Amino acid sequence: MHAAEPGLVRTALDMSLWRRDRHGTPVTAGLVHHCDAGSQYTSFTFTAHLIEAGIDASIGTVGDALDNALMESTIGLYKTEIIKRDGPWRSLAQVELATEEWVDWYNTSRLHSAIGYVPPDEYEATFYAQHQPREAVGVNN
């Protein structure tokens, strides 16, 4: 497995910040970015970008399997629900499109047991309808 490119990691962060702003739930003080100790996350430019966005960095310890348990579980679901089920794949473009669609579904629409079997977007919308967001910290659009 290859490490993610630093530019890709920053783009993913920027997309998530943009999405929160677009939905009227900008980053607030106290947001923490959890990651492993990969070089793309510990680079000066990425760390500076987190600081600029008002996000605290939390880096897991090297070799600690518990730090990656959630990610490993998510990757397992992805492989089972998309890669193995819908393969064989004819092109990288097919895999990329299927991955984008699955990640969007997983992050926004899937029923989540920990939040009462409602989709994350619905749960978040209900939460923010009931709570006034705290003052936003510096986020570049």
From TrEMBL:
<dbReference type="InterPro" id="IPR001584">
    <property type="entry name" value="Integrase_cat-core"/>
</dbReference>
<dbReference type="InterPro" id="IPR012337">
    <property type="entry name" value="RNaseH-like_sf"/>
</dbReference>
<dbReference type="InterPro" id="IPR036397">
    <property type="entry name" value="RNaseH_sf"/>
</dbReference>
<dbReference type="GO" id="GO:0003676">
    <property type="term" value="F:nucleic acid binding"/>
</dbReference>
<dbReference type="InterPro" id="IPR050900">
    <property type="entry name" value="Transposase_IS3/IS150/IS904"/>
</dbReference>
<protein>
    <submittedName>
        <fullName>Transposase</fullName>
    </submittedName>
</protein>
<feature type="domain" description="Integrase catalytic">
    <location>
        <begin position="1"/>
        <end position="127"/>
    </location>
</feature>
<dbReference type="Pfam" id="PF13683">
    <property type="entry name" value="rve_3"/>
</dbReference>
<dbReference type="GO" id="GO:0015074">
    <property type="term" value="P:DNA integration"/>
</dbReference>
